Amino acid sequence: MWLGGQLGALLAASMVIGGGDAEGTFLATIVGHYVGALGVFWLLARNKDSNAIGFVIRGGDFAFLALGLVLQMAVALLFLPISELLFPDGRPQQEVAESLANAETTLVQIVLVFAYVVVGPAVEELTYRGVLLRALEPRGKWFAIIVSSTVFAAIHLPGIDPSDLWRSALLYIPPFLILGMLLAWLTLRNGRLGPAIFLHSGFNLLAAFVFLLPPELIEQVS
Fold first, then answer.
1. Quick one: CA torsion of 75, 80, 86, 91, rounded to 10 degrees?
2. Residue 102 pLDDT level (bands cut at 50, 70, 90)
3. Could you report the per-residue pLDDT of 196-216, keeping only the tens digit for each?
4. What is the largest CA-CA distance in the chain?
5. Which residue of 61, 70, 95, 211 is most buried, as measured by CB atoms within 10 A?
6. What is the mean pLDDT of residues 151-168?
7. Rounded mean pLDDT of 111-123?
8. SS (H, E, C) the chain
């Protein structure tokens, strides 16, 4: 699914890069990424029992959105001393944060927030908890949780500043590992993806909101 997303993004960008502007190419890349990932998922799941994936959402799952917001704040506070130690002059932005902060139009911001808060969590939960976690579960609950969470964290490495990869990885990968383990545990505990999707969305929602704030306001608050 991850490779399908990369291929979809590449194909979509190549279709518009000649006659489209930078904004059009960027938006096509986002759409292509998720279409490619979901296309591979469809191929994987078309002959499977839908209950094996656990893509079930219930009304009570909405409460996990608030839990995701709280988790994002707790993780940010937990890793604040490490951030100040590793990057005393300010930590580097992730690729998503940089894209949101530098978006030139409102349309790009809306698409990015929708992808980051709605589509992205759903696709990632299908990939890492719906497919990978379930495939690893026969080897043991904690084996499945640890391995799937490690893959989930490692897959975010391309979004880290390559100019200072190791320090950035020390700062950003542990929070993704913690998030991945909690999402995996929630999925196994509930037997479905709904709670994990909403918790993941809430986690991303607070980050997206902060990324969209004017830099001057963030400096005043800090």
1. 80
2. low
3. 999 999 999 987 776 665 544
4. 55
5. 211
6. 79
7. 91
8. CHHHHHHHHHHHHHHHCCCCCHHHHHHHHHHHHHHHHHHHHHHHHCCCCHHHHCCCCCHHHHHHHHHHHHHHHHHHHHCHHHHHHHCCCCCCCCHHHHHHHCCCCHHHHHHHHHHHHHHHHHHHHHHHHHHHHHHHHHHCHHHHHHHHHHHHHHCCHHHCCHHHHHHHHHHHHHHHHHHHHHHHHHHHHHCCCHHHHHHHHHHHHHHHHHHHCCHHHHHHHC
Single-letter residue type at 197: I
> Which residue in this structure is represented by tokens 């991945």?
180
Cβ(101)–Cβ(11) under 8 Å? no
Residue whose tokens read 């709904």: 194
